[in-house]
Structure prediction request, 136 residues.
Amino acid sequence: MKRRDARKHIFNLVFQTEFQEEVNADDIIATYNEEYKDLSEDTDGYIVREYKDIVKNIDEIDELIDKYSIGWRVDRLPKTDLAILRIGIYEIIFNEDIPNGVAVNEAVELSKSFSEDKAPSFINAVLAKAAGSRKE
Prediction:
């Protein structure tokens, strides 16, 4: 499975997190795996690792989203955009294996698939600011 396809699964998991009163990453993953039994172990390991790292760092990620999304607080963002921004910020700040430009581009592509028409430019702007704060 390509990393782009794995990122869509990570998006689904992060998106589902928003609808849980108390986030239990293992429960969310178990439920997700019931629905998508065709995930390979290698890909599943990558997806689980990335998702758990996002959940572990979600408070810091949300602070950065608040910082870079001028005029929009995390609690006011559409859930799809928030999930995409969380993945993008995570990849830019916490995952050194992914170049900043790739992280931004992949987030914009996710927003084209899952968000409203104006979301890609908003997500691009927020993530570009975050990427500018972290030199490659």
